[in-house]
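Posting this for the archive.
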Amino acid sequence: MSKRKPIINIQNIVASVSLNQKIDLQRIVEKFPQTEYNPAVFPGLVFRLKKPKTATLIFGTGKMVCTGAKSEKESRGAVEKVVKELRSEGIQITEKPIVNIQNIVASAELGGEIDLESLVYKLSRVMYEPEQFPGAVYRMDEPKVVFLIFSAGKLVCVGAKKEEQVYDAVDKIQQLLEEKELIYYPS
């Protein structure tokens, strides 16, 4: 078990949504003038919420993508709120939206210095090209996530589909870094 407790923050959740029906985007624009829709540039309509602060892309096919939420619960809540607002203005949505979390982006601070030069030799599935990018890229198999690892002990974790996978992955990488003596904590 690690000496230090990492500080983990969920930064963004990307969820795909299916409404299983076609949606009239022009009608949404008429009812919600604050939406952004320019079909000549992009086929989706942008529907923003202030609370929770999210942006939902809505497509005429009935597919949606919600970004910006800080938790799975908040993401599902944002989708429900968008659907509720659409229905309140007479936009027919007949079924319950099907929400799938596609990607969770999280940051973590381990509180120690990481030796990126040695990381390349002691771990497999690592890419580190300091001339190109200041962090190392590490691909973890289980859970299936990708880390950006920085020498200051900061991490970015992408690819998780559940919040608990983020916490498991960060614990696992921290343990690995400690076992391989790649992280040094200030005394």
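The first strand starts at residue 7 and ends at 18. Helices lie at 25-31, 72-88, 116-122, 163-179.
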